[in-house]
Amino acid sequence: MKFIQLSDLHLVPNGKSLYGSDPAYKLQRAIESINKHQSDADFVVITGDLSDKGELSTYYDLKKMLNYITIPYYLIIGNHDNRGAFLEVFDNKFKCDTFVQFSQAKDDSLFLFLDTKIGDWHNGGFCKYRLEWLDKKLKAHKNSSVYLFMHHPPFTIYHKQMDSIGFEPKNKFWEIIEQYRNVKHIFFGHVHLPICGIYNETGYSSTRGTNHQIALLPKDDDTFFNSNEQSTYSIAHVTPHQVNCIIHEYLNEENAYSCSVPLKKEYES
Ligand SMILES: [Fe+2]
Question: What residues flank ion ligand 1 with Cβ within 5 A?
């Protein structure tokens, strides 16, 4: 199984820019790259913050752009999104009750796409309904390998500003996960940084946003600062024994050049 993770598009109404760049252009370049180099992937997932301010027109624009992707795509929402506007455009495709939460099963694997948006807050979380939905899915597929996609990371990532708009309640979420122990990996967005690690026995990873990134400094300031780090997407290969993610700077791929370092044999001769 191979799939591509994109995140944090932050689309703005047509003709406008965000932090000095055009989010639609950065997404178009990602789609172009995926079609050209990743067309063997099973699907693309975009892990939230599809729109910067949740205008209806941004979701219509997104749908038009995604029509050009040659492989299936799945979408979840983030704190910047407007759930109602999103569902008006994408209708029932990604919906469960009133949430953007759904599942896909393939062979012995289950992919769960979670909605961590809470009200108009930048923090994320789960209500009782969504916790119960997760519990039921994990229980029904207790012999499967489960992979979660969610906008907010459900653990501390040791980044002061991003942790101040993190996920709660972490304890209730992990109580469910640890009951079944079938979640192998969590793919998340929100942080605009490439982060990887293991929480208890579950692996996790993220990718940068397509438009702008979050700076690491200054560490002790509550203010968010952006950085000029490159846009990326993550190329994930998932097998029963491995999860491998390559964080790819797709805007630079045309600058690839042949390497002139000699092979070991040539050193020896
Ligand atoms: Fe974001």
Answer: 8, 49
